[in-house]
Amino acid sequence: MPDRNKLKIWKASKLIIVAVIIVLVSTIIIEWKDYSSQSTNYRLNKWMWVPTKNYICRDGSTSGFITKNGTGNSLVIFLSPGGSCFNSVTCIASKNKFNVKSYNKFKKAIIEKKDIFSDSPQDNPFYDADFLILPYCTGDLHSGTNSWGRFKNQLKRQQFVGRNNIECSINIFKKMNGLKKYDKVILWGESAGGFGSLINFDYIASQFPDSKFTMFINSGPMLLGNNIYTNCMRRCLINLYKIKIPDDYHKYINDINKYAFKEQGFYEYVANKYPENKFIILSSEYDWVMRNFYGFGQSNCNPWVTTIDSMNYNAALRNLKHNLNDYHNWHVEIGNGSNHIYKMDEIMSFDSLAMLLTEP
């Protein structure tokens, strides 16, 4: 009987080993086929969904990025909008997954409506560019490195890994693209993507060292006044999302005591480190979405909204513009009204922006 039991155990072990080998080999083949197919079809000048196992959403599900190969020698990196997750209310409004179904919806609702994705030279100055679209499903302003995030009264794990997603996406994109060198890279961030563009600019620029950059923040300014950008909002970025401060940050900040929080010095940091590049902010004077976002800071980031008064927001925005006037490569444009996120035709109606975005 003991010999029979040993034989059964040995046979069961063999089956388990064979099953594991099959799973591993199948995974390798599937991944190889996916990557090979993407590489082959990439030259067809069509939008492509690229599933990426290391692109992780807030709920732990895998996601990917969207790309298109154009006919020109410029690249648009688009950081999508979508809110910020730091309490029970804001996390409901912030997406926690983005899959192939999400891509199909995004393509129909956003890409096919053209705008910055238009291939018409009359409608879009970047019509012939390559595109890398980074979907937003981490709720961390595209900037987190915390895979075990939790906030007050939230027991469920939140993966705030937007920065990690940027890194893995660019790495794969460059390989797919044959390490192509671009004359110009446009880093375009909308709302949450605007914050992400500023916070991650140094890393992204380091990945395309031979390219000139234009960074465009569309309705997502990080304001400087501590009465608007409060300590609890700072804790979200530093403690909850765990954003990265560049190693050489101090080297490019003239007065380290000027800023209450280090991340407020990102404007000066990129201006001084990248003097040949251009940085642009466009925001409406009373942006209602940003006033609600910063309003949470007035209640210690608890789950109830205290909307920032329109005049206070306007004053903080103009204070930011005044501070950035010290740098030749920063340009802040303040539009009328309270709308959030400008369309391409609205952007190009500002003569200064049309010139900055279209010049070499």
UniProtKB/TrEMBL annotation:
SUPFAM superfamilies: alpha/beta-Hydrolases (SSF53474). GO terms for molecular function: hydrolase activity. InterPro entries: AB_hydrolase_fold, PAE/NOTUM. The keyword Transcription regulation does not apply. Keywords: Membrane, Transmembrane, Transmembrane helix. The chain crosses the membrane at residues 12-32. PANTHER family: NOTUM-RELATED, PECTIN ACETYLESTERASE 4. This is Pectinacetylesterase.
